[in-house]
Model the fold of this input.
Amino acid sequence: MTSTAIIAQLTTLKIASSTSSPVSITGISATNPCIVTATAHGLSRGDVVTIASVGGMTQLNGGTYVVQYTTANTFALSGVDASGYTSYTSGGTATPVTWTKIANVKTFSAFDGSAADVDVTNLDSTAKEFLIGLRDMGQVTLELDLDTTDAGQLALLSKQGSQALAQFKFTLPNNAVATFNAYVKKVGASGAVDQPLKRAVDLRVTGAVTWS
Done:
């Protein structure tokens, strides 16, 4: 069969740096997934928004959601089944995060964790018995060419220093997007003769990875 392989070139990794102007909501469907109407919202798959001030469907207020897919005037909230929510009546805003690209990424490996084996063997067992534990999404490991002026690399250093949780977004060349939260565990530096200065970065993923 014809290969469906995806080349890694043009993959991007971005870190959330701030928030941008709120988008006005004019409608929300009580469906699965939940569809939000907001004229010319400008959002993309994998974006993260915080919803507030919604009338009627107040279950959404204060929540942070990943955008699953979009049209020019609507966007879906990934994993949100609103079929049992109260009906939307009026108003509301969706405030998106602002993403900063991390420059000079050379290689990456991602989501290498594995669930634990939970031993449930007892005295009536005739062989070892196990349940599978919670998903562990593991780490994202990056190799970068060091750039002391790049806003994305500076953001990594800032998050490492503050030990604050950060939001990240991988966008693949086929437009699939992985959005996830992680702590910046390591931002190292190394050098060698006839080699560019490099950074080694470890991100510890916490919670689920949302693909959109």
Q: What stands out?
A: The chain has two domains: 19-97, 105-211. DSSP finds one helix and 15 strands in the chain. Residues 151-162 form the longest helix (12 residues).
